[in-house]
Design a protein that fits this description.
The chain has helices at residues 30-34, 56-67, 78-92, 134-139, 166-178, 222-233, 246-250, 282-297; strands at 10-13, 16-19, 37-39, 42-47, 50-54, 97-105, 119-126, 141-145, 183-187, 193-195, 200-205, 208-212, 238-242, 254-259, 263-270, 273-274, 306-308. It has 311 residues and is of the alpha+beta class. The strands form two sheets. Strands 8, 9, 10, 11, 12, 13, 14, 15 and 16 form a nine-stranded mixed sheet that branches. Strands 1, 2, 3, 4, 5, 6, 7 and 17 form an eight-stranded antiparallel sheet that branches. The longest helix is centred in the last third of the chain and has 16 residues, at 282-297. The two termini are 30 Å apart. The structure holds pyridoxal-5'-phosphate.
């Protein structure tokens, strides 16, 4: 669904709610030219206990952490951003939605050093279903290894969610789609598996789970963290510091992506090599089922992962 078809009227921008169409910036905004922005993608689920934001604290912490390497002082504290987000969801009457906070260097000067530009902040929210489609969640996606490598953490901090760096993900996604695949897997500078353009990756082998470690140039995904905990709670051993070679993908018993947008999406083939039985594998199914049970029901053991919208 495009934004034009959506029924959301306002966006929080620099301290106030403005009409959706009025949420505009100057064309000489620093962040537009040099990608000097940091952002988050967060889901609010319509749980059995009411609408609740999934892992808000972790996401908002990551937003402030992302700002650090760029000397960006987000001019609102965590409580202010929390209140603004809750108020936005309530006034728009959204039950389940995707939340996009963004902080960026604004209008001031266009030298590379952004210190003459004020930091600006906006928060938008809108309904958003399954990122790769409902069929993807059920039957898995066909993916290809991208010819674009993930930038190394010695070049740009990979644990920061920075707007400019997403051009790497855009290239990988465009290439995958134009070659007939649903999504890409990006290798790091060393040629080992990093992640998807907007997802982390898990591999299942001999009943155990492996996911690339943080030094493999990946984003420290919050769904990744959640899935590690879910898998361990289900009794699985998770190797969360793995180095995974390209070839290991082809021979994996199961593969799946995790991410706020992609949730838990099975991968059924890589470069036309069938993974397992070519559909959602049994361990992936168990973890995905548990994940959706948690976000739909907000069970007591995982209640601390949620922030209720109605207080
Ligand atoms: C490059 C990249 N890796 C991984 C993820 C998954 O992170 P999370 O689970 O926090 O959404 C995302 C999505 O934000 C991403 O953009």
């Amino acid at each position: 669904m495009s934004f034009d078809e959506m029924d959301v009227e306002s966006i929080w921008m620099d301290g106030e709610f403005v009409e959706w169409d009025e949420a505009q910036i100057h064309v000489l905004t620093h962040g537009l030219h040099y990608g000097t922005g940091v952002f988050e993608g967060i889901r609010c689920y319509d749980t059995a206990k009411g609408p609740a934001i999934f892992r808000w604290d972790e996401h908002i912490e990551r937003l402030y952490d992302s700002a650090k390497p760029y000397d960006m002082e987000i001019p609102y504290d965590k409580e202010e951003l929390t209140e603004a987000t809750l108020e936005l969801i309530r006034r728009e009457g959204l039950e389940s939605c995707y939340i996009r906070p963004i902080a960026y260097y604004g209008y001031g000067m266009l030298g590379l050093n952004p210190s003459d530009c004020d930091e600006e902040v906006a928060i938008a929210a809108w309904p958003w279903g399954a990122y790769l489609g409902e069929d993807a969640l059920e039957n898995g996606v066909d993916v290809a290894i991208s010819s674009w490598r993930k930038y190394a953490s010695s070049q740009i901090p990979t644990n920061a969610k920075t707007t400019g760096t997403y051009i790497n993900s855009v290239l990988a996604s465009l290439e995958a789609e134009s070659n007939g695949y649903v999504e890409a897997i990006v290798l790091n500078k060393e040629g080992n598996v990093a992640e998807g353009p907007g997802e982390n990756l898990f591999i299942v082998r001999d009943g155990e789970l492996y996911t690339p470690g943080l030094a493999e140039s990946i984003l420290d995904g919050i769904t990744r963290q959640s899935v590690i905990e879910i898998a361990e709670d289900l009794g699985y051993t998770v190797h969360d510091d793995a180095t995974i070679s390209r070839g290991e993908l082809y021979t994996a018993d199961e593969l799946f992506f995790t991410g706020t947008a992609a949730e838990v999406t099975p991968i059924r083939s890589v470069d036309d090599n069938q993974i397992g039985s070519g559909t959602k594998g049994p361990i992936t199914d168990q973890i995905q089922t548990k994940f959706f049970e948690i976000v739909e029901e907000q069970p007591e053991e995982y209640e601390h992962w949620f922030m209720p919208v109605e207080q």
